[in-house]
Amino acid sequence: MRRKDDDPGRQRRLRKGLYILPSLFTAVNIAAGYYAISQAIQAANNQGDPRHYDLAALAIGFAIVFDGLDGRVARMTNTTSDFGRELDSLADVITFGMAPAILAWLWGFHAMAMANTVLQGKLMRFGAVVTFLFLAAGACRLARFNIQLNPQPSNPGRPGKKYFVGMPIPGGAGVIASVVHFAHGYPIASWWMALIWAFFVLTLGFLMVSRWRFPSFKGVDFRQRHSARLIVVLCALVAMIILFSDWTLFVISITYMFWGIFSRLFYGFRRGSQMPPPSPDQVVHAD
Fold first, then answer.
1. What DSSP assignment string belongs to 26-43?
2. Which residue range(s) make up the domain with 211?
3. Cα–Cα distance for residue pair 268/273, rounded to 1 Å
4. 77-81: long-range contacts at Cβ-Cβ below 8 A with a sequence spacing of 24 or more?
5. Phi then psi for 164, rounded to 5 degrees?
6. Do residues 263 and 212 make contact, with C-beta atoms less than 8 angstroms apart?
7. Where are the transmembrane segments (predicted)?
8. What is the Cα–Cα distance from 25 to 36, expressed in whole angstroms?
């Protein structure tokens, strides 16, 4: 007697239904981005209420988790599709491009207290340009990621290990969200801190469009056996995030950001020190 599980028609229906699962994670990703935008706007309308800024930052953090899950779920259930990839890219533009750009502008430039209102208005417009450049850089980063099959970083790492070429847009959004959460949502109130924040956001945009390598963590396979020490480390990390989310998330995001910067500088220094000596024909002798 044939079981119901062996019915080809039922298997086809089940396979088609599994495509809904990764799309649900992507939909939650979009919802988190929309919630982050609404909370940032609400904070600005309520005279810089830090609670709403903090909620916006946390929403972006949760979206990063769901963004990592939808791809893994699709690969584990063998339900990857062109539609899912395009939907994921559009969701990333909203959640990790538009939402952190609006949050960075409102949190970093909207609550400044300056006696010169004309200068304050110009600084706010400058902040709008800077955060727009962050959004544009993130969109360009996604477009490059979608069209390149096997991109190679300008500073190659260990052979056989997977890297991102340029900081991924969830990483850039995570850095902005972690800084806001580290400040517990209290916005920047001084003009000189706003200028530092503008330079910081511009740096994130540059890192996203650069060809520097960043860890992808795609080589970690949760279906394989791992040592018990890894489980202990993961449990300790989760506990630190729950108990000390402000410090833990800030340290993780800043470390990830500077890992890409220092790896590029180290590669350039090592490459310069290993350059072969010039040949006798290339040596220019002084008179």
1. HHHHHHHHHHHHHHHHHH
2. 16-267
3. 9
4. 77/18, 77/21, 77/22, 78/18, 79/15, 79/18, 79/19, 79/21, 79/22, 80/22, 81/19
5. -90, 140
6. yes
7. 20-41, 53-69, 90-111, 123-143, 163-183, 189-207, 228-244
8. 17
The enclosing domain of 80 has a CATH number of 1.20.120
Averaged pLDDT, 200-205: 97
Which amino acid appears at position 10 of this protein?
Answer: R
Sorting pLDDT into bands at 50, 70 and 90, what band is 147?
confident
Classify residue 282: in a domain, yes or no.
no
Q: Is 273 a member of any domain?
A: no
**In the chain, how many domains are there?**
1
Task: Report yes or no: 73 and 91 within 8 Å, Cβ to Cβ.
Answer: no
Within 10 A of 46 (CB to CB), how many other CB atoms are there? 11
Tell me the pTM. Answer: 0.84
**Residue of 84, 82, 127, 81 lying closest to 102 (CA atoms):** 127
Tally of residues, the chain? 287
Residue 279 pLDDT > 70: no
CA distances from 164 to 18, 22, 161, 170 (A): 28, 22, 10, 12
174 within domain boundaries: yes
Does residue 175 lie in a domain region? Answer: yes
Q: Which of 96, 109, 119 is nearest to 37 (CA)?
A: 96
Beta strand extents in the chain (DSSP E only): 163-165, 213-215
